[in-house]
């Protein structure tokens, strides 16, 4: 491990621990306005700042725009959309099969009626918020509107905030470990990225009621997600569509929770083990499609190669 990477990990993980401890000591709820502000301003950008310190400046080449003519532009814009929407489709199909067809309680089921959507929204957002917002649209309208909104959010505000994480994990850390090959490199990034969330997961972030199991689920989710995001980074040569994909997922996760309200967060939730497995499968497909099967002797070479444009 290089000195640069060690410094980055110490700063980003240490910073997260300090901010998390501050939230805990002050008793600030994560879903309160002060909690949201602290998370957005102090917690989420910490990998970006840690990378700037470790590298003593910013790497502008990581923000490159599409190259290769129209094909390059299309790939740049659609790679994150295709990856995230593939996840949405697979996830909803998995919940449909597990909950509706097989009747496995952990999967719950899909909310298809307005009554089910209202009940799910009340459990997620609170009854007061649902009453203030009015009745939700039909499930298909909610999904389509959410997908369009996710694209816009991913390329704007959500992507901007996601860059606070992506510049560190898929920027500096990926550049430092990709020679190990996609499997080992993404496992390392997934563990580090997942543990970076630990100080707030212990306080109920993403997995309320599962402080310890939530950390395990987050490490698994971050590992699967990292395979997808590094594939986009290598395919496009830029962190911009990577941050867009991250931002799109953040926007769509809420929609998935509304459409599948009976799932268990650590196992069958979008950020649970089911979500981790689906993202891992999508990421593996993206890497396999680009490189074919990676043998043990080809791992380092594959990690250094860029995906074809």
Task: Outline the structure in words.
- The protein has 309 residues and is mainly alpha-helical.
- The protein has one domain (66-304).
- Helix content is 72%, strand content 0%.
- The protein contains 14 helices and no strands.
- It has helices spanning 3-25, 33-43, 46-55, 69-101, 114-125, 127-133, 139-154, 157-177, 182-196, 198-201, 211-236, 240-259, 273-291, 299-304.
- Helix 4 (69-101) packs antiparallel against helix 11 (211-236).
- The model is unreliable at 294-309 (pLDDT under 50).
Q: How many structural domains in the coordinates?
A: 1
Structural class: mainly alpha
Radius of gyration: 19 Å
Strand content bin: under 5%
Backbone shape: globular
Number of helices: 14
Rounded mean pLDDT score: 89
Q: SSE order in H/E notation?
A: HHHHHHHHHHHHHH
Largest sheet: none
Percent of residues in helices: over 70%
| Low-pLDDT ranges | 294-309
Q: What is the end-to-end distance?
A: 30 Å
Please provide the count of β strands: 0
GO molecular function: metallopeptidase activity
EC number: 3.4.-.-
Domain CAAX prenyl protease 2/Lysostaphin resistance protein A-like: 157-252
Pfam families: Rce1-like (PF02517)
List the defining traits of the structure above.
globular, mainly alpha, 14 helices, 309 residues
List the helices and strands and how they pair.
Layout: H1 3-25, H2 33-43, H3 46-55, H4 69-101, H5 114-125, H6 127-133, H7 139-154, H8 157-177, H9 182-196, H10 198-201, H11 211-236, H12 240-259, H13 273-291, H14 299-304
Helix pairs in contact: 1-2, 1-3, 3-8, 4-11, 4-12, 4-13, 5-6, 7-12, 8-9, 8-12, 9-11, 11-12, 11-13
